[in-house]
Design brief:
The chain contains 11 helices and 10 strands. By secondary structure, it is α+β, with helices and mostly antiparallel strands. Among the domains are: 172 residues, Beta-Lactamase; 128 residues, 2-Layer Sandwich (Heat Shock Protein 90). A 5-stranded antiparallel sheet has the order 2-1-5-4-3. The longest helix has 64 residues.
Length: 502
């Protein structure tokens, strides 16, 4: 069993708080990774890439000016470093971080991505030499392969320009530098400018490369200190948020736990207020429904126990009356009968005999009332037939039974049996009836019971103490039914009961 302390230390709240902290940390780390993935390429472009591209263009222009003063490069010259690996779509910095590593690509270029390249252009805008001759072929017009601003720069012969733009092979950062010939003039086929480009990294590029760029930008191999500060601050913030967010949930769980303990201790009156439509709210509603049913079942069981106890007590009283008082009354009637035969003229003896016979009849009726038939064994119709037979054989009453099988809950069947018993008892004890009629019927929604007698009748508008009519009405009202009593002095009585059934 969970305890309150257990819930605080290692229970639901502790686990929820820990999960909130972990989830918050994971979200922050993921956000930082996304920021690195998106922002580092931009930082590389704006802060570092243009600078190395321009420096590389100036370096190559200076080298070409020194090596080829007349601007005439030998045919088949491939620029760049043959020892560098060509990686389309990515730019690599030199060790000093000031210039680019330009690979010499003598073979074909796989894919359709931009590469880091150097292109030498003459005064007519045609390619003289390049680091990737398969893509930038000597003698080919350079403008279709370069960004628009770079092509315009070649025509305008302004070689200090740099920027970013689109090419047929993707976006690049570019720069141009002039190659100064020794005679100050350059003809066709002679180098006049150097164009250098580097592919702009994809915003969703390699996270490892992005992290490396960040470390280079920060000048340290360690992550920025703000990253550690943010991660450390997230722990107490996540814990506080977890405690606040889980407080209501844990309170509901504790209330549910206390309710289950109460039920385990025998208290079935516990009810939980609905506190939401989530899983715990539905659990609370189902728990209240369960305790309500348990309480009803327990009350019904107690009622059955009381009824059984009363039935046992009535049976015991009936047995005692039959074994003791009934025998004395029979003996008294026999003695009075003998005296009447020996002294026929004594009116007192005749009166004693008549009183004894009436007392015996009343005793038989009382015994029948104390020992009624039961519906628990065979159902309503057999119980009514047993009652009718008892009245015929024991009391000598003519009973006509027209009993249709009915399907009703046990409570309705018990009530109908007791109502029939009350009606029979009233008819015989108060109406001196010698003939009874009982009928049962059922339609789609009701069970009907009719009891008629040929007794002396009565006026229903006048209260009759001890007639049992009040008991009949109470039973019918409890079951949501209706009762109709028709009688008149000297015309017998008829009781009609209708009780709804599902």
């Amino acid at each position: 069993m969970l305890t309150r302390a257990g819930l605080k230390v290692s229970g639901v709240q502790a686990r929820l708080t820990a999960s909130y902290v972990l989830v918050t940390l994971a979200v922050v780390i993921l956000v930082e990774i996304i920021v690195v993935g998106f922002q580092t390429p931009q930082l590389t472009d704006d802060t570092r890439l243009l600078g190395p591209v321009a420096a590389t263009a100036g370096s190559y222009a200076q080298q070409l000016t020194q090596q080829y003063p007349d601007g005439a490069l030998p045919s088949g010259t491939i620029l760049g470093d043959p020892g560098q690996q060509a990686i389309p779509g990515q730019a690599q910095l030199a060790q000093d971080g000031q210039e680019l590593n330009v690979p010499a690509i003598s073979g074909p270029i796989a894919g359709h991505e931009a590469v880091t390249a150097v292109v030498v252009v003459d005064s007519n805008g045609r390619i003289v030499a390049s680091s990737a001759p398969s893509r930038y072929q000597p003698g080919q017009a350079a403008a279709p392969l370069l960004p628009d601003a770079a092509a315009a720069t070649i025509l305008q012969r302004r070689f200090k320009n740099l920027g970013s733009g689109s090419t047929p092979f993707g976006s690049v950062s570019w720069a141009m530098a002039a190659v100064i010939s020794s005679n100050g003039t350059a003809g066709p086929g002679q180098a006049t400018s150097v164009y250098v480009q580097a592919p702009q990294p994809d915003s969703l590029g390699s996270l490892a490369a992005a992290w490396s760029d960040l470390r280079r930008l920060s000048g340290s191999d360690a992550p920025p200190p703000a990253t550690y500060v943010l991660l450390i601050a997230i722990v107490p913030a996540g814990a506080l948020f977890g405690l606040l967010a889980s407080r209501r949930l844990v309170r509901r769980v504790r209330r549910l736990e206390q309710a289950t303990i109460a039920v385990a201790n025998g208290d079935y009156t516990v009810r939980l207020p609905g506190s939401g439509r989530d899983e715990i709210g539905r659990l609370e509603a189902n728990f209240s429904t369960m305790t309500r049913h348990l309480d009803s079942a327990l009350a019904a069981e107690r009622g059955r126990a009381i009824t059984d106890a009363r039935a046992d007590e009535r049976t015991h009283i009936a047995r005692e009356l039959h074994d003791a008082i009934s025998q004395h009354l029979f003996s008294l009637r026999m003695v009075a009968g003998g005296l009447r035969r020996d002294h026929p003229g004594l009116e007192q003896v005749q009166m004693i005999e008549r009183i004894a016979e009436e007392a015996i009849d009343d005793m038989q009726t009382l015994l029948q009332e104390l020992r009624p038939a039961s519906v628990d064994r065979d159902g309503l119709v057999p119980a009514l037939e047993e009652m009718c037979e008892a009245y015929r054989s024991r009391l000598g009453v003519d009973v006509e039974a027209d009993l249709e099988d009915v399907a009703a809950p046990a409570a309705v069947e018990h009530a109908l049996l007791r109502i029939t018993q009350e009606a029979f008892t009233n008819a015989i004890r108060h109406g001196n009836a010698r003939r009874l009629v009982v009928r049962t019927a059922q339609d789609d929604h009701h069970v009907e019971l009719v009891v008629r007698d040929t007794g002396s009748g009565f006026d229903p508008s006048i209260p009759h103490v001890g007639s049992g009519l009040g008991h009949i009405r109470d039973r019918v009202v409890e079951l949501g039914g209706t009762v109709q009593i028709v009688s008149a002095p000297g015309r017998g009585a008829a009781v009609t009961v209708r009780i709804p059934v599902p």
